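User: I'm writing a short report section on ligand binding and want a predicted complex to refer to. Could you take this sequence and adenosine-5'-triphosphate and write out the structure as tokens? A short remark afterwards would be nice.
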Amino acid sequence: MPRDAAAEPGQAAGLRPPAVRLQNLSKRFPGALKPALDDVSLEVAPGEVFGIVGRSGAGKSTLIRCVNLLERPDAGSVEVEGTLLTGLDEAGLRAARRRIGMVFQHFNLLSSRTVAENIAFPLEIAGVPRAARRTRVEELLPLVGLAEKRDAYPAQLSGGQKQRVGIARALASAPGLLLCDEATSALDPETTTEILALLGDLRTRLNLTILLITHEMAVVKTLCDRVAVLEAGRVIEQGRVFDVFTDPQAPTTRRFVAEVIGTAVPAATLAALPAPNAGETRRLLRVLFTGTAATRAVVSEASRRFGIDLNIVSGRIDAIGDAPFGILALAAYGAPGAVEGAAAWMRGLGLHVGDLAAEEA
Ligand SMILES: Nc1ncnc2c1ncn2[C@@H]1O[C@H](COP(=O)(O)OP(=O)(O)OP(=O)(O)O)[C@@H](O)[C@H]1O
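Assistant: Sure. The structure tokens for the complex follow:
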């Protein structure tokens, strides 16, 4: 979508190339009727957390696996930190992959190895000498809160601890980019919160770029700076999380957003609203406040100024990162011109005023 023309973090980073640049990626699995990826292009700026969200089968796994070329796209290019991965030979690709860590939904730990040995595993594969491996593991253990568990085996760990091992292992070769494939989907809500906090903390401390896929908007809301919505292999919407959450454009995005910020108004509530008086109109408005306007004053003042009735059908105050916002569903009753006038007046105050979309009703 055009509102996402460029990522600000990338601009702030000056001449640094994007952490990830995908151009026109397409992929169709043999025998499949539809492509898993259909002309996907997106850029992730250095240091940002970028979420890709979509329903099951939307193409998320295929997309994230294309970033380190675990999956080869049929067409299009993949660039990571300025290196064109799709142009590398196998040796070049192996080296480039050391700059890319990956965290998996089901942890993928080796059950016969201890925590420390699991973390050291990628370094072993890369031929890093034993002493250097040990030093690196000792750095990583406290970073993920597992200093006391270095000699434990995966079977002795909770899900959250297993994922901490998975994260430490992904960070072993000090990558600049971390790919997270549904990293919290196998965890309970409390552990999910802990792991998301850990990822947020590591991102800042290690200056990481994180690209994650998830089917949970709550993950996006908590951790991401920007988000792309994938549907049937295509990016249908992308933008800053705040913008996408407060003003989703595509119907699918609206449904996703409604799951976490609950702007939906039950049909029964709407059905119970009184009909307008003769000669009057009733309009259902969705009003978005982004922190500056005082809700009650706006509603009562609009009512007074325009001689209309504003019935608050639902309301919510929330925040994304440290940016607060409020969303009100209003039923406005009055003369058609007066209702329109009130909506225009509210827009003039900087509020986002639209019709309550069908999906929300
Ligand atoms: N190895 C494969 N062979 C054939 N078809 C595949 C393969 N992997 C994925 N697909 C198909 O490609 C499409 C996208 O799948 P993908 O796993 O990328 O979606 P997803 O959004 O990650 O879904 P989920 O959340 O269920 O993992 C689906 O139609 C899927 O059936």
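A remark for your report: The pocket of adenosine-5'-triphosphate is lined by residues 29, 32, 36, 54, 56-62, 215 (CB under 6 Å). DSSP finds 13 helices and 14 strands in the chain.
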